[in-house]
């Protein structure tokens, strides 16, 4: 089963990522950078993130028997925090996030940005073995 890890800070993400990139049992690591959950609605404040979520969940279902895959869900902040040009996720050296949602495969640096995450064929192919 794919191991899903929800993180809400850059330090938490980098710490978890560092330990997993050296784990020989882990063959693939994916990261979904998305808007934080709105406490009033229980959903992401970002409409593009909300639209992409069911497609990403379906694609992850292809990997249900893969215990060598890790999927990070990284909440980049509320609307105000994301709108700040100094948001730390906008300045990551190897995974610079310019829009939400953004999917990255860590080892290959393959990525889907924003509306690409809403195209079922692209999302399914992104996670294909």
Automatic annotation (TrEMBL):
<comment type="similarity">
    <text>Belongs to the thioredoxin family.</text>
</comment>
<dbReference type="InterPro" id="IPR036249">
    <property type="entry name" value="Thioredoxin-like_sf"/>
</dbReference>
<dbReference type="Pfam" id="PF06110">
    <property type="entry name" value="TXD17-like_Trx"/>
</dbReference>
<dbReference type="InterPro" id="IPR010357">
    <property type="entry name" value="TXNDC17_dom"/>
</dbReference>
<dbReference type="InterPro" id="IPR045108">
    <property type="entry name" value="TXNDC17-like"/>
</dbReference>
<feature type="domain" description="Thioredoxin">
    <location>
        <begin position="9"/>
        <end position="128"/>
    </location>
</feature>
<protein>
    <recommendedName>
        <fullName>Thioredoxin domain-containing protein 17</fullName>
    </recommendedName>
</protein>
<dbReference type="GO" id="GO:0047134">
    <property type="term" value="F:protein-disulfide reductase [NAD(P)H] activity"/>
</dbReference>
<dbReference type="GO" id="GO:0005829">
    <property type="term" value="C:cytosol"/>
</dbReference>
């Amino acid at each position: 089963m794919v191991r899903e890890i929800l993180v809400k800070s850059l330090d938490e993400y980098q710490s978890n990522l560092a330990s997993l990139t050296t784990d020989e049992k882990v063959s693939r690591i994916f990261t979904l950078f998305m808007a934080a959950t709105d406490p009033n609605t229980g959903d992401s404040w970002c409409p593009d993130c909300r639209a992409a979520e069911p497609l990403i969940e379906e694609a992850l279902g292809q990997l249900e028997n893969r215990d060598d895959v890790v999927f990070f869900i990284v909440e980049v902040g509320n609307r105000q925090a994301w709108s700040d040009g100094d948001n730390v996720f906008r300045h990551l050296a190897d995974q610079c996030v310019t829009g939400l949602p953004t999917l990255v495969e860590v080892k290959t640096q393959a990525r889907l940005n924003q509306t690409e995450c809403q195209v079922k064929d692209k999302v399914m192919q992104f996670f294909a073995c």
